[in-house]
């Protein structure tokens, strides 16, 4: 009985995988032979981030926790959901909040914003845990010193991405979190109005650093969190920071391979 | 009975007690490594889960923990505990193996396997599970949206996003130029410098504790206590005016905390000599702050040199200060870089305890140029 259903299905599957379309996409047979297992890794642009073979201990879940992979997956989820959100969101003081309310109230079963927000929180945590794992296995040690440094920059970029995104809903939670966070910049030594030694930067009687040109102003594009800040954070959040992060991720993954793959006892 | 328990938890969550308990607990766990066993992990997680669940019946606890943007903090608590345990547990198992003339697990399994299917399937499974978790989380819990932004109405407390609350908590003890600018920079630089400072060739590519005790103790103290604990207490235990509130306490906006903070200069000039602080001009300010400047200078520039001395040069009772073997092993550059970063990191707990013990506000205070330490 079961065979009656399965037989035509497997015939259809065979038909499909033998077709010109399938064989033009996948240049090798099913990855059941060792030759094809090697070919699938080498001929697929996404899979070729991996080597063909790897040390058994290194790819165990108990060793890597898959935390780096999960972080990368979350980045992809965030890119995709963020793109969809960009269709509906306008980064102006006038529309931003209303657009978020619209997303919430006029999209039945809409969870894009939820996926984006919770995914972002999760990514911050998985980056920490990935770093914890890399530290606890001593994987930053030679020859992987440089890649650890890239990883630290990626941690900072993750936090900045989350921070810039935090402002975009333009609600009370958003602007005051950014206000509190960016107030720090006012205290930058030399470059902030309330920073040590900045008062000593003078030209005759004119002090060079003031609230209209200090580090905080550069961050906000204004003297307080306002329209220029929203636009600035939007551009950084949607274009600037993701581009830099994607670029550094490419370097990060490349170096994992070039430094000998997933770490293991030397 | 329950009230007594709640009072006890509220008391134990206070910054002083919580920080001290957590630090001593962590150090004890490094000393008595048998606590990283499966049994104690199970007991610990059950206790934590029961405590957490039972506390949900308390309205004040529920109010703060159930805030949508605070959900990640609950995640941080459980995940960080679990993965720290998991890493230490595997490290100690490996240490037992190498003590018993056996090879560490990662070396035993050094044969190569095909990435398809062994790794690719794991990644696929991780993606599927994570997608389900994210979807369920997103369906069950709406993303927060408060009232429209109003620059004229600042909420009390105003909090940064949760992952920066460790830094915001530091503002209690340091001025913004340190807590918000210098320390974050040092954290980033310090993290990047780790592989270049740490010359210990052991423990590369496998879990271990015994072979890299100092590195792990310092890193986990920084990550667990100075970062995660401050993030958690900054989120859950800091209420209006950044005052401390226990997990079962109502966030009373009108609570007033007495602030009787004094500077080192007050201690020296007013309390010790019984004279007013020197005033008038640059040199008077320098004279006012000479003791604090000396203390900071000694801590940052003299102490590293002293610590590089061999043990014989220290009087009994202070011999533990000697880091001579590190100086020998690492060489001068790495030693001074590492020790300086370490002392910078330790300046946070030191300043915390100075505040708690003496109400100390500033060691060096030049409010004229916003240069306060």
- Total discrete domains of chain B: 2
Oligomeric composition of the shown chains: heterodimer
Number of domains of chain A: 1
Q: Which value, in Å, is the CA radius of gyration of chain A? A: 25 Å
Q: Given this structure, which CATH class of chain A is correct?
A: Mainly Alpha
Q: What is the percent of helical residues of chain A?
A: 55-70%
**Element order, helices and strands of chain A?**
HHHEHHHHHHEEHH
State Rg of chain B: 24 Å
Q: For the record, what is the CATH homologous superfamily label of chain A? A: Cytochrome Bc1 Complex, Chain C
Task: Describe this entry's structure for a reader.
The complex is a heterodimer of chains A (266) and B (373). With 266 residues, chain A is mainly alpha-helical. Chain A has one domain: Cytochrome Bc1 Complex, Chain C. Chain B starts with a helix and ends with a strand. Chain B has 2 domains: 153 residues, no CATH class; 109 residues, no CATH class. In chain B, strands 2-3 form a two-stranded antiparallel sheet. The chains are: A mainly alpha (266), B mainly alpha (373). At the A-B interface, α3, β1, α4, α5 and α6 of A face α5, α6, β1, α7 and α8 of B. β1 of chain A pairs antiparallel with β1 of chain B, so a sheet runs across the interface.
Gist of the model:
By secondary structure, chain A is mainly α. Helix content of chain A is 63%, strand content 3%. Chain A has a two-stranded antiparallel sheet.
Key attributes of the depicted protein:
heterodimer, A: mainly alpha, Cytochrome Bc1 Complex, Chain C, two-stranded antiparallel ribbon, B: 373 residues, mainly alpha, 2 domains, two-stranded antiparallel sheet
Secondary structure elements and pairings:
The complex is a heterodimer of chains A (266) and B (373).
Chain A: H1 2-18, H2 20-25, H3 34-43, E1 53-55, H4 61-64, H5 67-88, H6 96-106, H7 112-136, H8 145-167, H9 172-183, E2 202-203, E3 206-207, H10 215-220, H11 227-258
Antiparallel strand pairs in A: 2-3
Chain B: H1 2-12, H2 15-31, H3 38-55, H4 59-65, H5 71-99, H6 105-108, E1 112-114, H7 115-118, H8 120-140, H9 165-170, H10 176-197, H11 213-236, H12 264-272, H13 281-288, H14 290-307, H15 324-330, H16 332-358, E2 365-366, E3 371-372
Antiparallel strand pairs in B: 2-3
Helix pairs in contact in B: 2-11, 5-11, 10-16, 14-16, 15-16
């Amino acid at each position: 009985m079961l065979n009656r259903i399965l037989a035509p299905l497997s015939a259809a599957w065979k038909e499909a995988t033998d077709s010109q379309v399938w064989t033009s996409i996948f240049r090798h047979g099913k990855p059941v032979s060792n030759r094809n297992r090697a070919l699938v890794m080498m001929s697929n642009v996404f899979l070729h981030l991996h080597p063909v073979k790897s040390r058994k201990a290194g790819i165990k879940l108990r060793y890597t926790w898959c935390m780096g992979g999960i972080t990368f997956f979350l980045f992809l989820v965030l890119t995709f959901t963020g793109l969809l959100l960009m269709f509906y969101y306008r980064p102006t003081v006038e529309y931003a909040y209303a657009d978020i309310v619209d997303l919430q109230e006029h999209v039945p079963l809409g969870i894009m914003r939820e996926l984006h927000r919770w995914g972002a929180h999760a990514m911050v945590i998985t980056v920490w845990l990935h770093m914890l794992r890399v530290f606890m296995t001593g994987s930053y040690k030679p020859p992987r010193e440089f890649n650890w440094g890239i990883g630290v920059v990626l941690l900072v970029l993750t936090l900045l991405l989350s921070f810039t995104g935090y402002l975009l809903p333009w609600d009370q939670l958003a602007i005051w979190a950014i206000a509190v966070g960016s107030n720090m910049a006012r205290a930058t030594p030399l470059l902030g109005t309330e920073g040590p030694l900045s008062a000593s930067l003078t030209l005759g009687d004119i002090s060079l650093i003031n609230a209209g040109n200090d580090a905080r102003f550069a961050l906000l594009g204004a003297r307080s969190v306002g329209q220029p800040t929203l636009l600035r954070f939007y551009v950084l959040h949607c274009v600037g920071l993701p581009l830099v992060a994607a670029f550094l991720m490419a370097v990060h993954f490349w170096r994992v391979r070039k430094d000998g793959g997933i770490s293991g006892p030397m | 009975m329950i009230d007594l328990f709640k009072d006890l938890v509220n008391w134990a969550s206070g910054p002083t007690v919580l920080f001290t308990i957590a630090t001593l607990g962590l150090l004890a766990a490094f000393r008595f490594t048998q606590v990283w066993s499966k049994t104690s992990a199970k007991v610990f997680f059950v206790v934590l889960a029961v405590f957490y669940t039972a506390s949900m019946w308390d309205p004040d606890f529920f109010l703060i923990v159930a805030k949508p943007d605070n959900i990640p903090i609950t995640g941080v608590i459980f995940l960080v505990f679990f993965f720290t345990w998991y890493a230490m547990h595997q490290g100690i198992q490996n240490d037992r193996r190498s003590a018993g003339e056996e090879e560490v697990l990662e070396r035993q399994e050094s044969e190569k396997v095909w990435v398809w299917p062994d790794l690719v399937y794991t990644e696929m499974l991780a993606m599927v599970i994570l997608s389900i978790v994210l979807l369920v989380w997103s369906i069950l819990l709406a993303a927060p949206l408060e009232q429209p932004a109003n620059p004229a109405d600042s909420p009390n407390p105003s909090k940064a996003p949760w992952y920066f609350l460790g830094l915001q908590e530091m503002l209690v003890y340091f001025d913004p130029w340190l807590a918000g600018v210098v320390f974050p920079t040092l954290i980033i630089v310090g993290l990047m410098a780790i592989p270049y400072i740490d010359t210990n060739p052991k423990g590369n590519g496998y879990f271990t504790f015994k072979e890299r005790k100092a590195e792990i103790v310092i890193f986990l103290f920084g990550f667990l206590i100075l970062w995660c604990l401050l993030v958690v207490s900054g989120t859950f235990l800091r209420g209006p005016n950044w005052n401390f509130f226990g997990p079962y306490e109502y966030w009373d906006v009108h609570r007033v905390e007495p602030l009787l903070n004094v500077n080192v200069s007050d201690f020296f000039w007013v309390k010790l000599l019984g004279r007013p602080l020197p005033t008038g001009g640059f040199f008077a300010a320098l004279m006012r702050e000479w003791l604090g400047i000396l203390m900071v200078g000694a801590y940052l520039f003299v102490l590293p040199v002293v610590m590089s001395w061999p043990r014989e040069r220290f009087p009994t009772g202070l011999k533990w200060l000697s880091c001579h073997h590190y100086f020998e092993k690492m060489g001068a550059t790495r030693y001074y870089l590492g020790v300086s970063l370490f002392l910078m990191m330790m300046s946070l707990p030191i300043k915390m305890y100075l505040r708690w013990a003496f109400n100390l506000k500033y060691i060096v205070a030049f409010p004229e140029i916003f240069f306060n330490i």
